[in-house]
Design goal:
122 residues; 5 helices
């Protein structure tokens, strides 16, 4: 019985610790994963750029700044979607089928990018 409780506590503490990682640590891990991928493909330019990015993250990253930056990107993308909607509306008013199709495609792309940004957890 004590063994099961000890095992459960150990597993719980490990899972809690993994959830407690900061956004900056996650970003570091992502960059390190990209470095590994670039090394496998012998892409030295990419490796150099990623190593520079990693050192920047280690030196300057804060979770608060990451969240603020992400919110700014979301706001900018919402503005982009609104602009694309306006462009589509103008094309519909003119009745140009070719422009309407192009504007619908651009609006869809902007909406998908917004959805991707909003789905990120920071």
């Amino acid at each position: 019985m004590k063994y099961r409780i000890a095992l459960a506590l150990a597993l719980f503490s490990l899972s809690t610790a993994s959830f407690a990682t900061s956004l900056c640590l996650e970003k570091e891990k992502d960059i390190q994963r990209e470095i590994s991928y670039a090394e496998k493909h012998n892409n030295q330019n990419r490796i150099n750029g990623l190593k520079k990015a990693l050192s920047e993250v280690k030196a300057n990253c804060s979770d608060k700044e990451l969240r603020a930056s992400h919110q700014k990107k979301i706001t900018e993308q919402k503005e982009e979607v609104a602009e694309r909607r306006q462009d589509l509306q103008e094309a519909k008013e003119k009745g140009d089928a070719d422009k309407i199709a192009k504007r619908e495609k651009k609006l869809k792309e902007a909406q998908e990018e917004l959805k991707a940004l909003e789905s990120r957890d920071y």
